[in-house]
What does this fold into?
Amino acid sequence: MPVAVLRLGHRLGRDKRTTTHLILTARALGAHRCYLTAPDPEVQQTVAALQRRWGTTLEVVVQRNWRKVLKERRGGAIHLTMYGENLPTVLPALQALVERTGKEELLVVVGGAKVPGEVYALADFNVAVGNQPHSEVAALAILLENLGGREALQADFGGPLRIVPQARGKVVDDATAR
It folds into this structure.
């Protein structure tokens, strides 16, 4: 299941750390694309540098027109919002959506402050990971893990740096040092 994340509401100078963490979480849990509605060269450079070292698995696309992304999608769209239906309640329907859309891209919409009301109508599902305020990064991680992102946690990202799992200590295999 190809997954893309649409990041709404990125405020330059204020949200770069959250948006960077959102992109890295999406990457770690198997997303292949992230749409940013506001270009932020610092975020884009940070992600590009990380992918040069750890492997490229995610494309960052600047698309100011979020409506176009939502309306032209071929697969389903899930909007993460604390006002939506709780994840455990809608998880069977979300899994059916993933099966139904098959190889089509599943779009996960993650907003910040002041998400336009139109997003709620355009999404197939408005989903809450708990109906309380909390991190959109945590909500994305929980959603993707529940939709099968668990497999990505063991994926080879193809970069020159690779962590060698250890019970204790830190071991990084650096192919560039050989």
Remarks:
- Residues 87-101 form the longest helix (15 residues).
